[in-house]
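Standup notes
- DV: blocked on the single-chain target, sequence here:
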Amino acid sequence: MKKLSRRKFFAPVLAAGIGLSFVKKATASPSQATGKRVGIIGLDTSHSVAFTKSLLRGDAAFKGYKVVAAYPQGSLDIVSSTERIPGYIKEVTNMGVEIVNSIAELLQKVDVVLLETNDGRRHLEQAMQVFKSGKRTFIDKPIAASLKDAKAIFKAAEMYNVPIFSSSSLRFAKGMSEIKNGSLGKIKGADTYSPMKFEKTHPDLFWYGIHGVEMLFTVMGTGCKSVQRSIDKDQEVCIAKWEDGRIGTFRGIKNGKQDYGGTAYGEKGISTLGPYNGYDPLLIEIVNFFETGISPVDKKETLEICAFIEAADLSKKRNGIAVNLKNIGS
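- DV (later): unblocked, structure below
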């Protein structure tokens, strides 16, 4: 692993407004999972309750991992998220989860972490506290609310030698893994769709459209060159071109029937993507990651998804012209 200079590491952290008190010397070697106690940061999303319920079932695929403690404070000023916290505290408490008063207290009681805070703007700040402990961390979508913060998170994880990954559950929807593993041969193109809800504190697709965007990248892989966004009152379409000439599209559904899915076009056939089959396929991948420290999602792909989303926002501001991803974050 290439060693980062202190100057190069501090720059994105300071730019994101994170104090130097979070930055200490990196651990000497990659972290190892020492137990199966799971801690949750952020009880402002239904994912926290769903993951807790699934792990409590004790399926063999979950390998004995259980949520034992949670720090509830995630989003600060997103009412649709913060209003959920009291109810979700009650739900997880009834499942035997201890509620703690700080991330520092949480880290004393757990071996691995699910960073579930719904507000991507807080992920860098909260993740930095976890990274100091060396604990393996899953960061729920979106990894951050900007490409800049996403890059800073990965740099910090490398600094502390802490394995991380981030993903939407739609990456592991029905049929996705088979297609990714070559069932259709080389993928020539893909179309995906998902609901598209907005949150004013986040670039448009970071909030909900990220599900469909992540499906698109799961099938197409990295190498997206440009994005062009077309907007209608009921839907939006992002047309993306890859460096090798392939074309992929994402359709965000704003009104009408809400669902997730798509179509992949391969050299050996054409296949439907989805339907969405719950959180358990993602949770199995998270447990395997906790065991091995190996992310099922490449860092480059996660960062390119963030660049795609920011390019789509810029295309919107420029009345739908194509925006090159190389111009994002440069």
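- Follow-up: The chain has a mean pLDDT of 91.
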